[in-house]
Write a structure and sequence with these properties.
The complex is a heterodimer of chains A (about 500) and B (about 350). By secondary structure, chain A is of the alpha+beta class. Chain A has helices at about 1-15, 25, 60-65, 115-125, 160-165, 175-180, 180-185, 235-245, 255-260, 290-300, 305-310, 340-350, 370-380, 395-400, 435-445, 450-465; strands at about 35-40, 70, 80, 85-90, 95-100, 140-145, 150, 195, 205-210, 225-230, 250, 265-280, 315, 355-360, 385-390, 410-415, 470, 475-485, 485, 505. Chain B is an all-alpha fold and about 350 residues long. Chain B is built from 15 helices and no strands. The chains are: A alpha+beta (about 500), B mainly alpha (about 350).
Chain lengths: ~500, ~350
């Protein structure tokens, strides 16, 4: 008993120790002292170098230090001036794009922003060996004057604005000194932004500290004295940190949203369309080359029941994929749950006695990965389809197996992005069944003027649904938990998958 | 008389200044403890070599490769081949290993394939977290485990049963579960400790201690249980032996019997457990690091493995192996200090 009492006393003493250690970071709710934003994310940057990094939930912190060439309005989705003041396609057919840069911007290392720096960055991005290089094929880049850049493409590039606004990291223009010595890009963020990274107070993969950039051209965009971003992989720890007042905002998760709803001074900001986990039905599969089989799979699952069970009110069932520019709400509920019809279609296709399909899923993707596929597999078994599921432990294993041609279907999580960004999945190397009619529609959209593109992409989406190219299940929400004292939060996938952190500000 | 005997010796030392050093060196070489340490360190080099080869081979068996991981879904076959070449992973496994080894023996563990940061730098920033966790847990486990074990053996009855129950609970509940409970009670409920993060000692010793209390407590439950149980059994065995009966009959005080005689005898078994616990903890911190958001090496080891970041993984394994070797040497030295038989052998 004495030992226990001593231990308890020790705990109290230790608890009292170092209470002031994080005082500079603990001022939050009232913003009476320094305005410090403490934000929790569930994933880390692989590297500070945008040209080598993946895109995930922490990508939005890049906007703090690295303004993009164009901006995207989180509410309307319209592209707006950022580092570029004037911009647009040149000529016909979306084969060239030109923009003019502002003249008063400097990189964090003091180098002035100009056309030569942007050209250097875009050319480096294409050869840096990162994941997104193939997305923007560039024929040449001209710099007619010190602040004008013209990009010439070898093929129509209708969604270049998406990339220049930060999509897949292309638009995060970084200093030419970093391009000359990529080691510098690996050690720091070297863009033009309202904040600068403090490397001495950051640990890659664990926490990132940002302070105001006093050289930034628009000081009114600096809303915080300091921003500390903490990577916390466990959603329940994130929730506890919010409850304890150690975070002011954090990325949410379906597993903790129920708890978040019960915390009084916390607001759940959410919007549809973060991810679209789907099953890509591949051309490598003989049974799936028959459209009746693909349609049968689509009729076999009760999307509403699956969505309610997995996401509650925060998810939406859908038979259609959800790109930002081509989603047709009329087709969202195209395949209603009808197991009898599924069995009938399978019989007609010659698979009345059963069908075995090999499926590989992203076992590391939580609800959107293996858990969803296992539920789908259960529905399939009720109509005589045996899903033999392989759970990939890593992204590399998933791709290795999915692209091997050995599997009938491949579960994949698509970000909510423009249609053209994911046209690659219809190519032979990826394996989704190509279709001449879809190819024709995509060709028309790629050369169409911007104002006509959305309607053509909707036609494309309807085609994928009618031909059952994929097996869509639900869309997932973007969830942000934030204290009521933070304003400006729009939980929309304005930049691919990330909400616009840079627009948040303390309520006065 | 004494002066007469010493003077010639002193005179000869002054005449041959290196003699004393040589004699001291000879004494050191003859020291069984130092010989043991020397033997252990020599065999450690072989162990390091074997472990590094095994890691390389086992990591190569994991499906996928770093180029596929970096390029993602839409990388073209040409880009994939080019990146494999740039990363050097298109060479034979032997060539890759030889390249790594020749740099490693010069103290260069390479750079991460993903963020281009030197492996030594990344490990250097994360090692203090893992060492703080591991050493803290060992200390708590040792002190509390021995105290509970001794109390249980000496007092018996209800105390003994309580220690048994505690040991069972400590073994049954995983550290991450205990950690989650501690977070709810002491961080969220009482607000005594932070819910996540690590504060370096140099920044604030008090905050460093606070950041470690809950994770160390979560990890220590297992260690305290194991050591308490082993201590109790070893103590009961010692207390029931002939020499303790003789000591009691000779009027030696109970405190002296317990602390000077029985506990010293039980120390061998306790030291063995501490050594094993230290090795187990290096790998066992991963879950606790995730629950408490601590930037340690465990989490880094997992992510490096899944991403096929071979240089980083090799660096972490080498680091862990060196720590394991150091712990084993330390335990061996402690053996020789507490047990004269080991010294003689």
């Amino acid at each position: 008993m004495v030992a226990l009492a001593a231990l308890a006393a020790l705990l109290v003493v230790v608890a009292g120790c170092g209470g002031d250690s994080s005082s500079s970071d603990s001022t939050s709710a009232s913003w009476s002292g320094p305005k410090v934003l403490r934000y929790g994310v569930n994933s880390k940057l692989d590297t500070y170098n945008p040209a080598r990094d993946s895109v995930n939930g922490s990508t939005n912190i890049r906007y703090l230090t690295t303004e993009t060439i164009l901006a995207k309005d989180p509410k309307t989705g319209a592209y707006e001036p950022a580092l570029a003041t004037d911009f647009g396609f040149v000529g016909r057919g979306n084969m060239a794009y030109q923009f003019t840069l502002r003249r008063d911007a400097k990189f964090s290392d003091g180098t002035p922003l100009d056309a030569a720096a942007v050209k250097k960055w875009l050319e480096y991005f294409g050869r840096a060996g990162g994941p997104w290089a193939p997305y923007v094929p560039i024929r040449s880049i001209d710099t007619p004057d010190r602040y004008t850049v013209r990009i010439n493409f070898p093929v129509p590039s209708p969604n270049i604005e998406y990339f220049l606004a930060g999509g897949n990291n292309w638009g995060f223009v970084s200093s030419p000194r970093g391009v000359d010595n990529p080691r510098l890009l690996a050690e720091n963020m070297m863009g033009v932004g309202p904040y600068v990274l403090v490397p001495s107070d950051s640990l890659a993969g664990d926490h990132y500290t940002f302070e105001p950039n006093r050289n930034y051209y628009d000081q009114s965009k600096i809303k915080w004295d300091k921003i500390v971003v903490k990577v916390i992989a466990d959603p329940s720890t994130t929730m506890k940190a919010l409850q304890a007042g150690e975070l002011d905002a954090a990325q949410g998760d379906y597993s903790t949203v129920g708890t978040a709803e019960r915390v009084s001074d916390l607001t759940i900001h959410w919007g549809q369309g973060a991810f679209d986990p789907i099953l890509l039905l591949t051309q490598h599969s003989k049974p799936l080359q028959d459209v009746r089989v693909r349609q049968a799979l689509n009729y076999a699952i009760d999307r509403r029941a699956i969505t309610d069970a997995m996401l509650g009110k925060y998810g939406e069932p859908t038979s259609e994929w959800v790109p930002t520019d081509g989603f047709d709400p009329a087709y969202q509920d195209y395949y209603k749950y009808d197991p009898a019809k599924a069995r009938q279609l399978l019989r007609a296709a010659g698979y009345g006695d059963g069908l075995k399909l090999r499926v590989v899923d992203q076992g590391y993707s939580g609800n959107a990965g293996d858990r969803m596929v296992q539920i789908v597999a259960d529905y399939m078994s009720r109509v005589g389809v045996d899903f033999q599921v392989t759970k990939a432990a890593t992204a590399a294993e998933h791709l290795e197996k999915g692209l091997s041609g050995q599997y009938d279907a491949m579960q994949f999580v698509l970000g909510s992005v423009p249609t053209a960004t994911f046209l690659g999945i219809f190519t032979p190397s990826f394996g989704v069944l190509p279709d001449p009619e879809l190819t024709r529609i995509a060709g028309r959209a790629s050369v169409a003027p911007r104002e006509q593109q959305s309607e053509i992409w909707k036609e494309f989406s309807r085609g994928t649904v009618e031909k059952a190219s994929m097996l869509n299940v639900f869309t997932t929400p973007i969830l942000i938990y934030a204290r009521d004292e933070i304003a400006g939060i729009d939980a929309t996938p304005a930049f691919g998958v990330s909400p616009a952190l840079v627009q948040w500000e303390p309520k006065s | 008389m004494g002066t007469q005997e010493l003077t010639p010796a002193l005179g000869s030392e002054q005449a041959r200044p290196g003699a004393a050093a040589r004699r001291a060196g000879a004494t050191l070489v003859q020291s069984p403890t130092l010989r043991l340490v020397g033997r252990r360190l020599a065999s450690s080099v072989v162990l390091l070599f074997i472990v590094s080869i095994l890691t390389f081979v086992l990591a190569s068996l994991i499906p996928g490769d770093p180029a596929r991981q970096i390029l993602g879904a839409q990388g073209t076959p040409e880009a994939y081949a080019a990146l494999r070449h740039a990363l050097g992973v298109d060479r034979s496994l032997f060539a890759q290993y030889w390249d790594w080894l020749t740099h490693a023996v010069h103290g260069d563990l390479g750079t991460s394939l993903f963020d281009d940061v030197p492996v030594m730098e990344t490990i250097g920033r994360r090692l203090p977290v893992t060492l703080s966790l591991t050493i803290g847990t060992l200390l708590v486990s040792l002190i509390l485990g021995v105290a509970l074990g001794v109390a249980s053996a000496v007092r018996g009855g209800a105390v003994g049963r309580a220690v048994d129950a505690f040991a069972l609970a400590g073994l049954a509940f995983p550290p991450f579960w205990i950690g989650a409970l501690l977070l709810s009670w002491f961080a969220v409920g009482l607000g005594w400790f932070p819910t996540f993060g690590y504060v370096p000692f140099a920044e604030s010793p008090g905050a460093w201690l606070r950041s470690l209390v809950l994770p160390v407590t979560a990890l220590s439950a297992f260690g305290v249980s194991v050591i308490a149980k082993q201590t109790r059994e070893a103590m009961l065995e010692a207390l029931g032996s002939e020499y303790v009966r003789m000591a009691r009959a000779s009027g030696v005080s109970e405190a002296s019997i317990v602390l000077r005689h029985a506990l010293k005898n039980a120390a061998m078994r306790i030291l063995t457990m501490v050594g094993l616990l230290a090795v187990t903890l290096l790998g066992g911190t991963v879950a606790v690091e995730i629950v408490f958001g601590l930037p340690g090496l465990g989490d880094l080891a997992v992510s490096s493995t899944t991403r096929h970041d071979a240089p980083m993984l090799q660096g972490i394994v080498v680091c862990f192996t060196i720590v394991v070797i150091a712990v084993n040497v330390l335990v061996d030295v402690c053996y020789t200090l507490v047990n004269p038989k080991v010294r003689v052998q």
